[in-house]
Amino acid sequence: MFYYLFDYLDRLGFPGAGVFHYISFRAALAVITSLVVSLIIGKKIIYILQRKQIGEIIRDLGLEGQMQKKGTPTMGGVIILASILVPTVLFAKLDNIYIILMLITTVWLGFIGFLDDYIKVYKKNKEGLKGRFKIFGQVGLGVIVGATFYFSDQVQIREKVFDNDGRVVKEWVLNKDQCEVLVDQTVDNKSTKTTIPFLKNNEFDYKLVVSWMGESASQWVWLIFILAVIFIVTAVSNGANLTDGLDGLAAGTSAIIGTTLGILAYVSGNVFFADYLNIMYIPNSGELVIFASAFIGATIGFLWYNSFPAQVFMGDTGSLALGGIIAVFAVIIRKELLIPILAGIFLVENLSVMMQVSYFKYTKKKYGEGRRIFKMSPLHHHFQKSGYVEPKIVIRFWIIGIMLAVLTIITLKLR
After folding, report:
1. What is the DSSP letter of 307?
2. What is the SS3 assignment for 148?
3. Three-state SS for 158?
4. Which stretches in the chain have pLDDT values below 50?
5. With the CA atoms of 85, 144, 93 and 95 taken in that order, what torsion angle do they form, in degrees rounded to the nearest 10?
6. I need a surface site. Which of 5, 91, 236, 370 has the fewest CB within 10 A?
7. Is pTM beyond 0.90 here?
8. Rounded to whole angstroms, how far apart are CA atoms 239 and 244?
9. What local confidence, expressed as pLDDT, does residue 299 receive?
10. Can you tell me the distance from the alpha carbon of 292 to that of 281, in angstroms, rounded to the nearest whole number?
């Protein structure tokens, strides 16, 4: 919104209005605004939730300090959603296809999570929204994102042009000083390529999955791509949801992941950095830095009230949206294959539940009595059962998250 206003003022010659053309400036404003919004509305929303007695329903699992959380306001994810949406609408280019997809993702999964929390709190149904409806919503979002991403002409990557001998074609162009320089010839193409970490020629084309179909491969690659997006959105969204079990764990982990994604979006959307790092350049994706900045500010601002001991829980309203945002963001900047590293905390939380449930069912069928791998799942509860206090678990998970984030960034050069 402000971008268009100041762009108009800049064309009129208004002094200083051109600063809004800089992504770095608008990203800084987005961080500050999201922090301010979360801090201002957070206190008011917590008061409203307390007044309406919208508190967390706690099952006694025998965890230390668990029952003290009973009645703590939930559905605080609306603080995160508002703190993301407001700065993005104010400072981002709203006609950018990537920004549009991120806004749809935030509202879509935030609404599904809100329904789940509403049923739990108001209908007094501990199960919340039935699992099949959650999955249906996640699949629906995956279809929308995947189809838009594949079929929209606004979604392209810039590739170098090669001759028949495999050499890059060169061309003379005028630089900003009106001097002719020899540069690589490039062309913007629609593509189903993505990034593979740790490999020298680190690009993978989804067409390879259906290459056995021969000439028909190009006709069916859209289906493979959309199925991949559906899987990624569902897995990461559920992973964030499972991670939201300790004060500050999901919000802090998401802030770390969001910071990393913002860095990756910046270098992928900057032609000079992309060329220097020899990574895929994605035109117009730099605008995602604005969204990432709002995301970072929102999650950190939410930690003001969610850090131990929490004054509010994000509920599914926040956790489903956070996971979905991370998944779709990674797909857009073609870094979805880095998710197992970057979102490693979400991954192990997911795997711990899957392993626990599968092993319990297997041993019950084989021995007549279910056995467990962990003392409790998700994994953070295992450490609680092992005697670790909640803040120590959360901080150590954050430290691991930072290490994974650093590893993710160095994959740009480590190949």
Report:
1. S
2. helix
3. strand
4. none
5. -130
6. 5
7. yes
8. 9
9. 97
10. 18
